[in-house]
Design brief:
This protein has 227 residues and is mainly beta. Helices cover 6% and strands 22% of the residues. The chain has one domain: L,D-transpeptidase catalytic domain-like. Strands 3, 5, 6, 7, 8 and 10 form a six-stranded mixed sheet that branches. It has a three-stranded mixed sheet with strand order 4-11-13, with no helix packed on it.
Length: 227
């Protein structure tokens, strides 16, 4: 995800194998934190979380959860061919699956009409620029169904460490120190001044002053890996 030409986040995702590169898509604006997904390509329904509508039948959303009745169970997230393959292989029926934390981030930071670019290669679209490394994901939990490890409600959830952005150090020119010299005049013999004699002027030297002036964030989805 990019903002004003600066990349701010890159997340592992899984798409459908046939998702083609499309330039200039816009988010349609529909969003939902929890919904039931039904697809002609799947024989079962499923829950998804933090779904953000991109275009047509394409949504960004979390890895699916088992739909068992009307009660949602957050411990029934797909692990096999779901969470465990994010960023590694295709697994969806057309949408773009993400870990819960990343689906939540996109849900919270996108808006209707926001440009979205589905590309086949980052380097081809942004030549000479290095893509951000994807934020590391916690390992998948055991079994075919379990909690999404990035879910803050997960009993074993570990708060991720804050991202430290390292910037190039700036060099500040040293400030020239100005020392004011004090002149002490030792009085000598008093001089008598007569009307015909002008007083001797006192010459004051102003200390030299040196003025030192201190030189004083769009969303990108790669299709090589992606309900």
């Amino acid at each position: 995800m990019r903002h004003t030409r600066s990349a701010v986040r890159r997340a592992p995702a899984s798409t459908e194998r046939r998702l083609q590169a499309r330039i200039g898509l816009l988010f349609w604006g529909a969003k939902t934190k929890l919904t039931i997904f039904r697809s002609e390509k799947s024989t079962v329904d499923c829950w998804v979380r933090y779904a953000t509508h991109l275009s047509g039948s394409i949504w960004f959303h979390s890895v699916p959860y088992d739909y068992i009745g009307e009660k949602f169970d957050p411990s029934r997230c797909y692990m096999w061919s779901g969470y465990d393959v994010l960023g590694k292989q295709t697994s969806s029926h057309g949408c773009i699956r993400m870990a819960l934390r990343d689906a939540n981030f996109l849900y919270s930071n996108s808006y209707r009409g926001m440009p979205c670019y589905v590309i086949s290669s980052y380097s081809a679209v942004y030549p000479g620029q290095t893509a951000l490394a994807p934020a590391p994901l916690p390992g998948a939990l055991q079994g075919p169904r379990n909690w999404d490890p990035t879910d803050p409600s997960y009993p074993g959830y570990s708060t991720p460490k804050p991202v430290v952005i390292v910037t190039k150090p700036t060099t500040t020119a040293p400030t020239e120190e100005v020392t004011e010299e004090t002149t002490v005049t030792v009085p000598t013999e008093p001089v008598e001044t007569t009307p015909e004699t002008e007083p001797i002027p006192t010459v004051t030297t102003e200390p030299a002053t040196v003025n030192v002036t201190e030189q004083t964030t769009e969303t990108t989805v790669e299709t090589d890996s992606g309900d």
